[in-house]
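User: I'm new to structure prediction. If I give you an amino acid sequence, what do you actually give back? Let's try with this one:
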Amino acid sequence: MNNQAPIGVFDSGVGGLTVAREIMRQIPNEKIVYFGDTARVPYGSKSQFTIIRFVRQIVRFLETKDVKAIVVACNTASAYALETIEREIHIPIIGVVKPGARTAVAATENGRIGVIATDATIRSGMHTRYIQSLNPDLAVYGKACPLFVPLVEEGMLHDHVTEEIANRYLDELQKQDIDSLNLCCTHYTLMRTVI
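Assistant: Good question. You get back a string of structure tokens that encode the predicted 3D arrangement of the chain. For your 195 residues, that looks like this:
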């Protein structure tokens, strides 16, 4: 493996830039090739078959850039396609589900964790399964927030419409007395001031 080769990072859109920024912060001398699939965003409303097809196409593209590793910054792609793609390629591929789940487990004090994500990511159950594999006594409450991705992609981070939608989505989780909220979509991290 060429140590000077870049790291490939991809997401369904701009949300994965938060992951790319963190990689650059932690390992500043690394080169990064970023692919944001803004033509097909959002992924959260698509089937597993479609997501796997998209991920295969993106991975093939990143391989043409001679990347030494690939980071799947999209939670939906990580939940639906990571295990399949891991078996098909010969370079390291890293998802975001497990690191996020470990952080949520470490942060909770009352054992009640909220998970917000796209429809597909919530349907996959991946975050809940992984959190409970780390600690089966934890209660996990999932909530799909499908409008967050389009709002972020449209740049509506500080808009009263975004605040109203966030309040509607999160009201249900607040009633569950959660003390840890796992933002299981990279787009959502851009909304921290609203969430």
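You can read the tokens as a compact description of the fold. Here is one thing that stands out. Strands lie at 7-11, 32-36, 69-72, 93-94, 112-117, 139-144, 180-183.
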